[in-house]
Amino acid sequence: MRHHLILRVITKMLVGTIFLFALYVQFHGDYSPGGGFQAGVIMASGFIIYGLIFSLEKLQLVFPPWLVHKLLALGVLLYAGTGIYSLLGGYAYLDYTALSPHHPEHGQHLGILIVEAGVGITVTGVMVAIYYAFAARTPIINDEEW
Amino acid sequence: MAGDALNHASMTLTEQLPILQVLVPFVAAPLIVFIGSRALAWPIAFASSVASFVIASLLLGQVINGDVISYHIGGWAPPLGIEYRVDATNAFVLLLISGISSVVLPFARASLSVELPPRKHTLFYALFTLCLTGLLGVVITGDAFNVFVFLEISSLSTYVLIAQGASRDKRALSSAYNYLIMGTIGATFFVIGIGFLYMTTGTLNMADLAVRLEGQGNNRTVQAAFAFIVVGIGLKAAIYPLHFWLPNAYTFAPSVVTAFLAATATKMAIYVLLRFMFTVFQPAFVDGGITLEVIILPFAIMAMFAASLSAIFQRDLKRMLAYSSVAQIGYMLLGITFLSETGLMATIVHLFNHGITKAALFMGVGCYVMQAGGGFYSQLSGAGKTMPWTSAAVVVAALSLVGIPGTAGFISKWLLIEAALDRGWWFVALLVVASSLLAVIYVWRLIEALYLGQPAEGATTQEVPLGMLVPLWIMAGACVYFGFDTDITLSASRSAAQGLLSGSVAVH
Q1: What is the ipTM of this complex?
Q2: N or C: more exposed end of chain A, with fewer CB within 10 A?
Q3: Size of interface A-B (CB pairs under 8 A)
């Protein structure tokens, strides 16, 4: 892609904006359409376009595969952890009231925010991991392997 | 609002048990990936499995008398919120699933060292616990859509687990793919059925569905939903003509995976079938239709014979056992068709007994794969002498498969025949006995290879390490134990059968 000057310049301009937009969708999920799933996919698309234009190796310098694996597990742990926090407070699993017992509405707010953050992290991780799995695949299967 | 919070009564640990049942393995899976340490992966997986086994025992203790526990996720009351609902039926299946995984995991440690490259072990255990989570979740939940979600969790991890056999035989990939296609069709049919039910009733909670479906027996949408759900779950349960994915998947998966899945995954599907037939659609609805006698009964009998015949002609022990699993599912379906308490007891007891029997047998195959390099009868020749302890355990479990008195398999076949005679279907009772004779033939072929064959010249086959023998013998011992002490199995299944047949949906 070295000679595609326009693609490279536009991508450099867009990647930051894509990340910003992902964060906007993430944090406005509880007011307007959006949330962790959409934000995660948008965030991942920012990484993927960088990988497509500037090569997989450069992307993996920024976002190494081990980090991707950690993140996709971390998101689920964050989600489940919120539920466990409510358990420890003596509430039902994922009862957000536990996050702010004296102002249940605040608790609901905070709860959905944390849980959606977990979803967003995991979806980003999974999308990038799928991209890595395909892009880093050895192309040909040797005859001996069958 | 502030006042409400102050008056909040804390839930005790006992009240939290239903969620912990699923939560413990569910958290273990990402934790294994997050820590990413090969040394810690197995201990975490094993600890979570044992914890969920303890929880399942505690739950069964609470509900064995016919009580029902209802747990509201997020504090949202059903039918709007998701409800976990534990009664004797599903507590018994929970106990089976978590028990099998707790025995299979120690076996996995030694068995995987030869069947899977070390760098894949960490993720293998993560997938295993995820699969366990899915299976437990399907069984414990009281929400029809939640069943689908957990079904997908368990299925997706199952496909990958089966594909892990590719490091020994590349055909594992195509059989995993085949299962993926069939399983996805099954799951889609299931969710279409749920969609129809939601369209008719506007609810997804099973107890609420049951109330709203009453008197809707003539509604075409409801009938279509029933058909879609039975066929969808039928694919997952490998009911006779829908079983084509099963022999290959079981044959090419790593032995531990086969041992775990054969003992749990199809059993979970049979449980879902029971739950939908009897709790969501009431027994009256099922009885009024032609499903049982015209569709399920013939297929059950065909499974008993056709699959047993296929099993006789196999040359690979693992494949033989896979076909025998299809036949055994026939017995479980047969129990349902009697629509009587004894019949359902037979189904539920057989679900449990066959689970432990098949776990023992497939673990035995794992031992042979490790020491003899495979499970073909030619490779097993004379293994009774070179691997006496493994072979003895395999024979005990194989006798239970046939249903010899004194083993677990006998109890369930006895109940099945009793139910057939109660119903006046003496011919069906004869067929059960006749198909058991087919089982004698395929088991005899195994025993012949093990004890009458001669070890190959210069073979250096020896006994497997203790880490594999102990789990194998625990399961083989269970086959005998539950053949004599039928207290737990019979009382749990009686309570479960009564609950299912009464169609009781006492909403709290």
Answers
A1: 0.88
A2: C
A3: 77
